[in-house]
Structures are given as C-alpha cells and as structure tokens.
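User: I'm putting together a small comparison set for a docking exercise, and I want a reference complex before I start. The sequence is below, and the ligand is acetamide. Could you produce the 3D structure with the ligand included, as structure tokens?
Assistant: Of course. I'll restate your input first, then give the structure tokens for the complex.
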Amino acid sequence: MKNGDLFRVGFIQNNPMFGKIGYNLSKIEPLLTQDIVDLMVLPELFSTGYHFLNQEEALRLSEPIPEGPTTQALVQICEKNQTSIIAGIAERDKKRSYNSAVVIGPNGYQGKYRKIHLFGTEKNCFDKGNLPLKVFDIGIARVGVMICFDWCFPETARTLALGQADLIAHPSNLVLPHCPQAIITRCLENRIFIVTANRVGTEERIPNSTFTFIGQSQVVDPDGHVLCRASEKEEETKVVNINIKKSRNKSINSGNDLFLDRRPDLYRLQ
Ligand code: ACM
C-alpha cells in the first residue's frame, strides 16, 4: 500500500454517446491520468452506451477481451501509471456477446466478469454470464465485481464477500431508484466496501422507449457510511481514501460475527 493502509479509490460518472466508442474513451482517458489513484471504477458499458437494439448490434459494437482496443487502451494507462481500473465493456466472444467488466492492474489485464443477472432488454442482446464470481487480488486489495442489476440479488455480494473480497466494484447503468440506498444494506450485511460507478443522461434509441440513468455513483464503507455520492445529473469524478482493512473484521460487537454466526445448514438457496 502506498500510504499505510490507506487506499485511494474513485469512480467516474460519465454520459456516453451511444455507439461512439472512440469519442467516449477519449473523454475518459484524461480523467484517468489527471489524478492517479489505487483503483478507479468506470460504469457498465462505459464506452458504448447502454441500449443495444438487438444481438447483431451488440456483436457489432462489442470487442474481444482482452485483445480489443478499449481493454488495451486501459491496460496501457494502468501499466504506465501503476494503477488499477475496473470498467464495464461490451464483450464479443465468437458469436456471443456479454455485458462484461474488465479488471486491470499495474501489471496489466487480470481477468473479466460477465454480468449474471441481465436486466430487461439486455436479454435481447447479451448472453447470461457464465463465469464464476471471482475475487481478484490487485495487490493492495482483494476486489470482486458485480454489474448493476446484480445488486438486486444479495447472493452476488455475499458470494464475493465469502470469497474474501475487501471491496466490490459495481459498474452500473442504474435506472431503478432504490439501488444507492439498498447498497448500504449490502455493505452492512457483508461488512464490505462497495464502489458503484453509475452513468447519467438519457437514451431514446426507440421513440417512446427511454432509459434515464440516475447517477448517484458512490463509495460506501462496511459501516454503511456513504463516503461520497455524486449528483443525479452531472458527469463527475470523485476519489476517497479508505482503510481497506476495515472490511476484514466481520464482528459487529463482542458477541456477533457476521460470518461466523451464519446458519448455512438452515438456509435455502434453491
Ligand atoms: C441495469 O442492470 N443496467 C439496470
């Protein structure tokens, strides 16, 4: 860690133009290099925009990971500046497309996550994620990834927390209003940090079918404190210092430990 146990983590809340990958990336690149942090989280589908009309369009605008130009541009930034980035990217894998996120560290590409709970029209353009929920060691912290609507399935955050994640990076394109508040519960019940990087703006790719994204990207700590939260409508970058070790202690008082007190013998998951 560069500064004791302190870890500088941030998010970029952007407003991409649908389909303009080069333009969207060129707006983000200077923000990634003006203030070097330990980990920067970017929104879901940050370089393409959100509302793909069908699978053909998703395949046309998606890229192989890690060979594609968006991942490679982020790899160069991370290697040059010794930083880490987690970013949502539309992935093409042969004839399939996935709503994915890449994990990149100072030594380059580390892996990817493919969204497992697709939201609404995403089911028309992406395949469901087929990779295990994985925790990545980025050197200074253990980081899990979930994408947007995954927040609604508490098993996602729980699986990552049980896998010893200190922090969950949560690239998002949120449209439902409740997530920023609900994430506080995910943090409390797992004693974990969550960084939600959401977008702002509106997409109306089909007349009278509008997606309005709610902003409010945030960093929440294991005590449920909102350390910073962005506005609902503006593009913003925010960075905070966190003590990553705080998430490694799951006890909430002298008699209770959130993980040791679990009763998996009585839980029903199927
Ligand atoms: C969403 O999962 N992008 C709402």
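The radius of gyration is 18 Å. The longest helix spans residues 21-34.
User: Thanks, that's exactly what I needed.
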